[in-house]
Give the backbone structure.
Amino acid sequence: MNTDKIILSNAFLIYGCIVVFFLLMKVFNLDNVSELRFLNFLFVFWGVNRAIKMNINLNHQNSYFNNFYVGFGASVIGVGLTIVGLMVYVGLMDPSFMTVLENSSLWGNKLSLSIVVFALAIEGIASSVMCSFILMQYYKNYKASENIVA
């Protein structure tokens, strides 16, 4: 399978999981519980793991840097799509969500959408690097198997 397809499919999977999670939080009126937002890291971690594992098993790729690139690429694109989704959500659907972010203990007062986007971009890049690096410590000696990726 093409490396770009692995990256994009897992990026859209990360994005989809985060969007569904936030929609469920909205439906159950939990969008004001800022601690639940830390679960995004689990979706990113899962997507990076899946991307690296797919690259190893389907492409028989054992190069550390290639697999790191695949994991990092999937997570950065997934986080980027999530940020674009947040911009659309706040701009077109629910501008009052900025008030929810201001009232959380994480952000502070007098937020603008550009500040939130910048902070999320930095956080997303940092979590992408961390997830990719952590998982590559496991996969650096991992050999391709005949099993299909789950």
